[in-house]
Specification:
Layout lengths: L13 E2 L12 E8 L5 E9 L3 E8 L5 E2 L8 E8 L2 E8 L6 H11 L1 E10 L8 E11 L2 E4 L5 E4 L2 E13 L4 E9 L4 H12 L2 E4 L2
Antiparallel strand pairs: 1-14, 2-3, 3-4, 4-14, 5-6, 6-7, 7-13, 8-9, 9-12, 10-11, 12-13
Length: 207
């Protein structure tokens, strides 16, 4: 069905193309469908209350979002990391990093080689909404990660080139930042899974 246009002064009901898990706060359950980046993986549509808006997206069964504690009043930041090297985020807040220009400025300071692949308006999401895709190189400290077979392995410190694909939606008193980050050398299936979630996201203003 076609997207619903709302008044530009607030978040609009919006989906990127066609249509995350268990958060600490209740989510509205909807019928699940099956998708197949991996054989036999079920997904469900789940709705998250970010205060200024509700965000609905497909979430693979068993996925669990972490809800960051200790944020300013009214702010939320949820992340899901399906595998090392990539994560999906749902965030609401008023910090400069919740705006496209503020986040890019911070990325240029924290990383190196910032390159914006695209920065396009998403007007159906609301006045000032933008979808930004960019790449930046970050220095990653030595870490211990779980291998595919469940064993732990030590990864030395290194520079990592990362791709970010983020939707920024201005609301009345805050911004939403929705999307994913993935290492450029991560498996293509991981990026495809995260991109599918963003491409089917729906944003609706809170009643």
């Amino acid at each position: 069905s076609p997207p619903t246009q709302r008044a530009p002064s607030a978040c609009a009901t919006w989906r990127l193309s066609a249509h995350a898990r268990r958060s600490a706060r209740p989510a509205l359950a909807r019928p699940c469908a099956v998708w197949s980046h991996q054989q036999g993986v079920d997904e469900r549509l789940e709705t998250f209350d970010l205060g200024a808006a509700r965000v609905t997206l497909p979430v693979p069964d068993g996925a669990a979002f972490s809800d960051l504690e200790g944020l300013d009043s009214g702010a939320r930041h949820l992340t899901w990391e399906p595998a090392p090297g990539g994560h999906f985020m749902l965030s609401a807040g008023t910090s400069p990093g919740h705006t496209p220009d503020g986040l890019l400025a911070g990325e240029a300071q924290r990383g190196s080689g910032l390159h914006v692949d695209s920065d396009v308006p998403a007007p159906i999401a609301g006045r000032g909404a933008r979808r930004v895709i960019y790449r930046v190189t970050r220095h990653r400290a030595e870490e211990v990660v779980a291998a595919a077979d469940g064993t732990l392995m030590r990864v030395p410190e290194r520079d990592v080139r990362q791709l970010s694909d983020l939707l920024f939606v201005p609301c009345e008193a805050s911004w939403l930042r929705i999307g994913y980050r993935v290492d450029e050398d991560a498996p293509e299936a991981l990026r495809a899974r995260l991109a599918r979630m963003l491409d089917r996201v729906e944003v609706s203003p809170d009643a």
